[in-house]
């Protein structure tokens, strides 16, 4: 199958679904991955998920990944060798790992027939994965080979403030339009704080306005709305259309509440990928290949034109554009036979070169130079 050939429905059905977990530090990504791992093991022990850990700085993960970046890149050694800080070390380690990501894809492809889900656990420093070249390469490479869904993990207890909620929504919006993949908002830690308030703010603009007005610091000393209050009001209006095309689910990584509903949404997003995102990816891939082919043809045409102009300008030089004949080559070989031209004098002098590798007759006398 060529790279530009669209995948058939049967071929796509055999491919596992990739879940890329992204979220702020402390949102509970690794715990959420462990909960997904436990749920999929209990649902079908014969088809466990295939897990990739892309965080080189994590000391311990509550699951056993099939592919671990820590087995390939030593995070502390990278910091030492390149004189980097923690974030620079993580970014450089991820860049080094990405140079061999084609081998990772080969390993995943070999297991694609025996698994239904592939899970990627990304670094806690969200900007390192979402805004770096290596993160984009990994996401694009995975999405071009498998149905891919992005799960954005949100710390629900910390989102009760309208300003923090708006910050998370803006970040989710930017990641959605950067990855251009099916997107799921996962409100984690619902055992600590239920997520119904966030769903209400997303669906009801007036409810968010009321929560924003009741929040402390929304008005200045003169009773007028503050600049931040007015800014969040405006942004909530802008994001109102964004909320309509977004799927959200509340889960608890500790208790497992909502995990089943999350995988139901994942299946819906898989269908969206096949219907909407896959044709765009195939079209973009075909456009890139056509662009490369056009560049090659244009380069070849310009070369042929330059060659024709050169021949028309210098017709005599055309006769020199030929290969040497075999007779000329043989003549050159005869002239280059340096083996017979090596002469050894009867009276050698100190420092004289003597070829001791040539076969000589037994009666041939050689006067070897004496040292000193």
UniProtKB/TrEMBL annotation:
Primary localisation category: cytoplasm
EC class (word): hydrolase
Transmembrane parts of this sequence: none
Signal sequence segment: none
Span list, region Disordered: 306-372
Xref: InterPro entries: Gpn, Gpn1/Npa3/XAB1, P-loop_NTPase
Compositionally biased tracts (Acidic residues): 324-339
One GO cellular component, as annotated: cytoplasm
Entry EC number(s): 3.6.5.-
Pfam families the record matches: ATP_bind_1
GTP-binding in keyword set: yes
Domain of life: Eukaryota
Family: Belongs to the GPN-loop GTPase family.
Function: Small GTPase required for proper nuclear import of RNA polymerase II (RNAPII). May act at an RNAP assembly step prior to nuclear import.
Family annotation (PANTHER family): GPN-LOOP GTPASE 1 (PTHR21231:SF8), XPA-BINDING PROTEIN 1-RELATED (PTHR21231)
Name of this protein: GPN-loop GTPase
Species of origin: Paxillus rubicundulus Ve08.2h10
